[in-house]
Amino acid sequence: MRAARAAILLAATALAGCATAPDYQPPASVAPAAYREAGPWTSATPMDGMPRGAWWRAFGDPVLDDLESRIERASPTLAAALARYDQAVALVRRAGTDYYPEVNVGGAASRERLSGRRPLAQGRSATFNDFSLDGTLSYEADLWGRVRNSVRAARADAEGDAADLASVRLSLQASLADAYFRLRGLDAQAALLRQTVAAYERAYDLTLTRHDGGIASGMDVSRARTLLSNARADLSQVANERAAVEHGIAALVGEVASSFSIPAAVQPLAPPDVPAGAPSALLQRRPDIAEAERRMAAANARIGVARSAFFPTVTLGLAGGFEAASGSLLSTPASYWALGPLSAMLNLFDGGRRRAEVQNARALFEEASADYRAAVLAAFREVEDGLASARHLATQAKDQRDAAAAAARTEDLALTRYRDGASDYLEVVIAQTASLDAQRTSLIIQTERMRTAVALIRALGGDYGAGGALSG
């Protein structure tokens, strides 16, 4: 008898071992020793062990700081992501309840009359009361790991939703910072265009005076008028673009566009140095990579859930209570109990349904693995793109500032020559157009440098520096 029990126990252990999910290890992605596009101005000291802080403070803009704080309070997109995480946590709790037995309590009261012509009634009817109070307990023994793997999968999904919440938060923060610097770039262009309109108005008045004095031709007046009108049209276009960007910021912070405004301001557009850190730290910093890895862990656990269906379901039962037609209900003579049933059910034929479920679970795991690899590759590409853009835009900005300065000197010389009668107004028009284009291009490049810094911080997964500020 003991030998038979030992054999049964050994067989159950073996079956349980083959029914569990495959051993899971987080994927070991090989990261390069350094970013190819990293220049000497980047830092290679990762601080991924530090808590993520308010990375936007590195830009030193109080208005941006205030806008970023509003995201936490009022962004509907962030609120939806938080709700998804709360749902996932609730699902973990629900899956964990299968670890415990299910207990039910019920009661009933009835008055019945039995037929006198029923079998064995001997022609006598019967009328009686029936009162009952009972409870049942049911418990599924988790011999094959179905419950354990279900809880593991739910917990991994919840951790994935937590990473998704962090990813949504970082995306909103970066989108807000990007829109804000676009706004400030447009403010700088608007200020330049207002100065240009004022200068063109003076040039137009000068040309009109010279025309009235017989010195300048009507063509010179028309050219000056054309430049002035074009500058005014460009100013209106910039105002239109600014309004659209401002409305977009309102939506990001959960405000109604009609009652939201950001005062115009002209300020230096100087991006901070962004420490790229070591490439290996990127896998820990990026919340989307963390989410992809957790989805893969959940898919692996669900393989175990699908495989457990090949083995019997073992259920333990217990019932008891009180039943009486008269007298005290809650008394020993009225009590009853039943231990069991101890049931086991094994599906012998299902047309291949369980095998298909296992194949589906394995395919989902392969899909999650591919998604993880895609997330890693996309992360490294975005960082390399950001580093390359930051370096090339820095060089371009310097060259463009030189070009704008040279164009401004050419404009001054052209106006002087025109006043002295050494040239016609066409030379002034060409110089003024080139100067305005060069200065606007310089402002656009500076704006792109700010936006590139934001995109690079986002690609790196946010700031992990102490105090919430990026350190160079």
From TrEMBL:
A Pfam family that the UniProt record links to this protein: OEP
Organism: Sphingomonas oleivorans
InterPro entries registered for this protein in UniProt: MdtP/NodT-like, OMP_efflux
Alphabetically ordered keywords of this record: Lipoprotein, Membrane, Palmitate, Signal, Transmembrane, Transmembrane beta strand
Example of a GO MF term: efflux transmembrane transporter activity
GO cellular component: plasma membrane
Homology family: Belongs to the outer membrane factor (OMF) (TC 1.B.17) family.
Lineage: Bacteria, Pseudomonadati, Pseudomonadota, Alphaproteobacteria, Sphingomonadales
Signal peptide feature range: 1-21
Record localization: Cell membrane
The protein's name in its UniProt record: RND transporter
Membrane topology listed for this record: Lipid-anchor
Domain of life: Bacteria
